Amino acid sequence: MRFFVENIDGETITIEGSEAHHIKNVLRKKTGDAVFLFDGKGNEYKAEIVSIPCRGDFSRPASSVKLKIVTKTKKDTEPKIKINLYQSIPKLKKFDFIIEKSTELGVSKIIPVISERTQFVILSPANSGINSAKNLKKLNRWQKIALSASKQCGRTVVPEICSVTNFQDAVKSVCAGENPSKSISLIPWECEQKNTLKTVLQSNSLISNLLSLNLFIGPEGGFSNSEIELACKYGVIPVTLGKRVLRSETAPIVVISNILYEWEG
Question: Considering 32, 53, 74, which residue would you say is the last residue of a domain?
C-alpha cells in the first residue's frame, strides 16, 4: 500500500486525515514501521513512522502520523509517449471505469468532452459559467478515482482530470498545444474504412520523435459526420478499429493498449 503526499520537502512529514486513519486503524502500523509514499512527480519514498497517536493520547490530532524519509527513488513507470484522452462523457458510471482503467494503462491527462450525441450531460463546459459547484464536485471525485488507480497500479504520477469542454474547443486545442509537430491526434470512427490504427501508427515517419498523442473517443451514439469533418479540418486522423463497433468504455482501453504496444513492445 502506497500513500500520496504532495510537495514532500525535507526529512520529516506529517500525514493527516483519511490517509493517516488508514495507516493507523486499517493497516495498524506502529512506530518504527515502514510506509511507502509517492509525490505524483515520479518519485517514490520509503519512510519510517516516527510517531503515531495511541488510544487515550489527546495531545495531538487522532488522525495525524509523523514520518521520517529514509530513501527517495526516481521511478520510471510512465509510457514513452504522453497520451491525452479526450473522452465524450458516457452515461452513468462508465466514465468512472474509463478513468480507472486508462490511469492504470498510463494516460497523462483525461479531458471530459461534451459532443453532439452525448446523452448524459451531467456537467457544463467550464467556459459556460453554469453549474460550477457541481462541476467542481464531480471533477474532484474523478480526480480521486485517478489517484486511487495510480496507487493500485504502482504509478508515481497521477493523471490530470481537466475541466469539461465541448468537442469544438477540444479539437481546436490540439492544434494550439505545445510542439504540435511532435504530436499526433486520432479519432476512432466506425465509418472509416481505409486508415487502421496499426497502419497510421506504423506509417508515421515521426513516430520515434513524437512526444504526445491526443485520442478522441465518442459517446454511445458515436461522432456525427460534422464532428468528423471538423476534426479532420484541425488535423485529427480518423481510424477504424475493425469490423465490430466497440462501446464507449471499451474503445479507449483497446486503443491505448495498442498504442503502448507499438511504442513499447
Answer: 74
